[in-house]
Amino acid sequence: MSLIPDETVEQVRDSADLVGLIGESVELKRTGSDYRGPCPFHGGKNRNFSVIPKKGRYYCFVCHESGDVFTWLMKRTGMDYPTAIREVARRAGIVIPERPGRTGPDPLEPLFGAVAAAHDWFTRQLLESPEAKAARQYLEGRDVPLETAAIHGLGFAPSDRSFLTAMRELGVKDQVLLEAGLTVARDDGSIHPRFRGRLLFPIHDLRGRVAGFGGRLLGPGEPKYLNSPESAIFHKGRQLYNLHQAKGAIRKEETVILVEGYFDVFRLLLAGVDHVVAPLGTALTADQAALLKRYAPSATLLYDSDQAGLRATFRAGDELLRHAIRVRVATLPPGEDPDTLVRSGGARALEAVLGDAVDLLERKIQLLERRGWFEGVEHQREALDRLLPTIRAAADPITRDLYLKAVSDRTGVSREALQQQAVTRPHHASGPAPDASSRPAGRQDAGQPSRRPVRRRQVEFAAEGDLL
């Protein structure tokens, strides 16, 4: 069989007229920006079935059937996935460039099939299971409507072994469940569900197929968040949450907003911001940055306002710069994250924060200036050591030149000297600032009380430097 390139699948999905296709067999009426009609899956006359063109999805609020344009054709006509892609392409007038591929069935199809079956079961548990009451209450407490959670495919994994029973009844083999990362094997050979007592977020590949899950523990215990393990279809460092839905909006806006968590993504979506993604609970990787480069030339980092969030901001920013992506940093009020900001201040508060975003290097300079790092030769040298890694990271030559000029203007150090330092990597450049408490203490007379505030300020310098 021949393979359809991923970029072509994305083009076909983005070009599809989902409303027109579904409207051929379902009487749809416009309701705001969406369309409603009777559900073609479970029947009835009430308009419980929703088509959401902006997201390229459909969803029934009664039987919970959901999917995209390809899923629609597969479920309604019995087409397989490649045939559904070709049919949508034909309707959209897109010629699919075929490329040679392996003959015979796709060896990954059983894994995707198992994960799809698990996802369908998990979503029904969230909506129907008595044990999922805690998950529904948790979502309510986070101001996430259950309908919104359902549309985005959230699910619930019970704490018992009912998942295994359900999958076996569907004919999914135990070995496939293991290979798909849905179960774990004990030393005695028994297998158990990987996710127990967790609210589940589906993680899709670029084709819109569920490849894995991120699970949030609802009771006591650790870890609070648990992802699917690495597998033939799931690669935590090469996938981004919500990218399959956001990529069209990212291309349109020519920028992407990065946040840290699943609920941050949800909150921005509810605020009407669609070009938002999140790493999967880890630092942004080179593969993830390269993936974003395919869709946008610039990015805004909207991470938490605490120290951990600030560290993650600069690490992610430097990684994006290495892929020639322009980077801005949006600064949240103290103690806020994107979720709490929008919940308390609404879309207007989010708009204000995003509107005040500044360039990554400029944000570093702001922090260093605020603590007085440019006062005196010693601290100025240390400040430069914290700015140089970002200059080095800038793969775009114009961005690097602008950075050299900005730092030269601020410090008085020549661009030539900065350029020379930027092409080398001193062994101490990426380390923390020296701790003031470890520096030799000068002799202090009783008549010199002013030295104590100076030492305290040095400690502040070191603490601020650790963040950069």
What's the arrangement of secondary structure elements?
Blueprint: E1 2-3, H1 6-15, H2 18-23, E2 29-31, E3 34-37, E4 49-52, E5 57-60, E6 66-67, H3 69-77, H4 81-92, E7 99-100, H5 109-128, H6 133-141, H7 146-151, E8 155-157, H8 162-169, H9 174-179, E9 183-185, E10 191-193, E11 198-204, E12 210-217, E13 225-227, H10 243-253, E14 256-258, H11 262-270, E15 276-277, H12 286-293, E16 298-301, H13 307-321, E17 326-329, H14 338-355, E18 358-359, H15 360-370, H16 377-393, H17 397-411, H18 415-422, H19 451-467
Parallel strand pairs: 14-15, 14-16, 16-17
Antiparallel strand pairs: 1-7, 2-3, 3-4, 4-5, 5-6, 8-11, 9-10, 11-12, 12-13, 17-18
Helix pairs in contact: 1-4, 3-4, 11-14, 15-16, 16-17
Q: Report Rg.
A: 26 Å
CATH topology value of the largest domain: DNA primase DNAg catalytic core, N-terminal domain
Please report which band the strand proportion falls in: under 5%, 5-15%, 15-25%, 25-35%, 35-45% or over 45%: 5-15%
Counting helices, strands and paired strands, the structural category is alpha+beta
Total individual domains: 4
- The CATH class of the largest domain, by name, is Alpha Beta
